[in-house]
Structure prediction request, 472 residues.
Amino acid sequence: MAGGGNGEVKLLGMWASPFVLRVRLALSLKGVSYEYVEEDLKSKSELLLKSNPVHTKVPVLIHNGKPVCESSVILQYIDEAFAGIGPSLLPADPHDRAVARFWAAYIDDKLLKASSQASSGKTEEEKAEGAKQAAAAVETLEGALKECSKGKPFFGGDSAGYVDLMLGGLLPWVHVGDAVKGVKTFDPATTPLLAAWADSFGALDAVEPVMPEVGKLVEFAMAMMSHAAAAAAATN
Amino acid sequence: MAREGGLRLLGLTVSPFVVRVRMALQLKGIGYEYIEQDLFTKGELLLVSNRVHKKVPVLIHDGKPVCESLAIVHYVDEVWAATGPSILPADPYERADARFWAAYADSKLLPAWVGIMWAATEEEKAEKVGDTLTAIGHLEEAFGKCSKGKPFFAGDSVGYLDLVLGSQLLWFEALRKMFGVVVIEEGKAPLLSAWVKRFGQTDTAKEVVPDVDIAVQYLKKLQSHRPGSTVAQLLS
Prediction:
């Protein structure tokens, strides 16, 4: 399904990937139609290998035959290449843009990295440290939301923008973690703004139909964990 | 160089993250007050201006801080869009390409060569050298594609990716002097090797990049004060 006046837009993705989700959410928010191609990451397509030779990862956005890689780079590209269509993803004011870029980087460099260590750390100690740092990052993001939203529902203000998408793509996996561990990452008691944000973001017309089912993600996560456990047991 | 009222940069002379910001300001012909920071004993202004990371660089414009080197470079390009050359290209696809490779240079190349300096064993050092050379290999290819036969990544004159990679060059010199490691070898990376020479001849490089001995001295100071520091502690 080509984008008509937008040229040919294709997205190589994987249904469970939060990075791919960020891009799908951005395209949905902008109202840009595209052809979605589900990749089997155990048997990557020629197109994927050719389009992202450096990392061989999804997401890859292919616009009129030209590939764009890395979710944060793709989001900025979507904002700029489809500038006349739908809402802007980044704010207009240069200082606000710099703040948005700062928090987008924080989400990847701090929150994601810590969460990753919390689940895949090599020792129980490493995992505990990761969990602690992830919790601290969530608290920091509560402050960020207060600063950026200025009383409105989203990091982008009245409407969702770049930072909302960068964090929003992670939401289904946050819900998975919560379901599996019996916790609330965006606890209304300690992070009320983020708790409200998660609900508001999830309920957006452009967001709700795009999000993967948490139940399916939980199954996927369980399968991954037992796979990893089996692999670890096999090497002992 | 007209002195812009209310523009201050908190930095560390030898930090690649700071150097690229200074290069951006130099390219635009913007004057500013430079304030060297002691990262061993961080001052009040730095702690207040970058509460989240307490790191350099921080650009303070009319009292408002901007943090994260790449966000700062974008900010400078946008605020002073009408002054001097553009740092990022105009075309959205080329912008995406520049951002992709800048992210690569910072997330793959930089940690690899920092790892060489901090390696505890010969084995670890060899591994990091390998990682560094792999990254350089990819950047060599990138240069071919981005420059399209012109002298710089950005074309006829320096731009975003030239600054991001160019800001790391003084440490390649330091690695050669202190560890005998040649990061960009003419035989293996001829395009980059030629680019290094050209870049070194630009006003941007000549005015901003400190002498390699200053980097060497700083590394020696770090080695004696903080064994086992991370990238973050080393250069920001």
Summary: The radius of gyration of chain B is 17 Å. Strands of chain B lie at 3-11, 31-36, 58-61, 64-67. Chain B has a mean pLDDT of 94. The CA atoms of residues 150 and 156 of chain B lie 6 Å apart.
